[in-house]
Design a protein that fits this description.
This protein is an alpha/beta fold. The protein folds into 2 domains: 38 residues, no CATH class; 149 residues, Nitrogenase molybdenum iron protein domain (Rossmann fold), CATH 3.40.50.1980. The chain is built from 10 helices and 8 strands. A 4-stranded parallel sheet has the order 5-3-7-8. A two-stranded parallel sheet has the order 1-2. Strands 4-6 form a two-stranded antiparallel ribbon. Strand 1, helix 1 and strand 2 form a beta-alpha-beta unit. The longest helix is centred in the N-terminal third of the chain and has 22 residues. It is globular.
């Protein structure tokens, strides 16, 4: 840390007492101001405004916060009259075997639930956080939609006899999340998930969501990453996210 000599340390994530104590110790030992920002998904607008003020770019922070708030409002509008029982059942398949997943309420599945999906890992018998499901549990849960960020799993799931009886696989509703420059689902659980939320809303509620994925992706990368995607870049990014399974 002394070699780097930063002017400020920013930590975005948990604000539990353990992390507060760590921030205080680091600040006391180094003399470097340490900002610990609540990284809960619903706190994103407030986090962006705080960060904008801290970095001396309040207008930038406010613009990003406004985009997040508008996206949340769009989600709320399409879910207002949609009962929980009518929302699609979704499974997050992590890793090459697709059997690691996140329980309801975990940071790993937060955008699935925020976009109006029912996380079937609620039925897998564990408690919270990341868990290892069995193939039998996934078969019993029988999700309508599977989302993964692992290209190995995605590349073989349609030909795997153990998965072929699951509704999501049988109906071609397995989707590969883009991961450039960061994952849209949970790698890491940060601002990148806002693009994932937009994507997820369109996947789960195509008849309710009013948006063009390609144009919204282009706009997001410009606003958040200062990157103007070419048509070729956009095509590569969305190749499988738009729901065209390999054959």
């Amino acid at each position: 840390m002394p070699r780097i000599r930063p002017d400020l340390i920013i930590d975005f994530g948990s604000v539990r007492d353990t992390y507060v104590d760590l921030a205080d110790r680091v600040q006391d030992q180094t003399g470097i101001p340490y900002i610990l920002i609540d990284g809960r998904f619903e706190n994103t607008p407030a986090a962006l405004r705080l960060l904008g003020e801290a970095l001396g770019v309040p207008d930038r922070g406010a613009a990003l916060a406004a985009h997040v708030e508008a996206t949340f409002a769009r989600i709320d509008a399409i879910l207002t009259d949609l009962p929980e029982a009518d929302r699609p059942r979704v499974y997050l398949a992590r890793g090459p075997e697709g059997l690691e997943t996140g329980m309801k309420g975990s940071i790993n599945t937060e955008i699935i639930e925020r976009a109006g999906g029912r996380n079937v890992a609620d039925d897998c018998g564990a408690t919270r956080g990341l868990v290892q499901a069995s193939m039998e549990q996934v078969i019993v849960a029988n999700p309508e939609i599977i989302v993964t960020w692992d290209p190995v799993f995605f590349g073989r799931v349609f030909d795997d006899p153990l998965w072929q009886g699951i509704d999501a696989v049988r109906n071609g509703r397995v989707y590969l999340s883009p991961t450039a420059p960061f994952g849209w689902v949970d790698r890491p659980p940060s601002l990148n998930r806002m693009m994932g939320l937009i994507w997820m809303a369109g996947l789960l509620h195509p008849d309710r969501w009013d948006g063009d994925l390609r144009e919204e992706t282009r706009a997001f990368y410009s606003l958040y990453y200062h990157v103007d995607l070419s048509e070729a870049d956009l095509q590569r990014l969305l190749e499988w996210a738009e729901g065209r399974p390999p054959r």
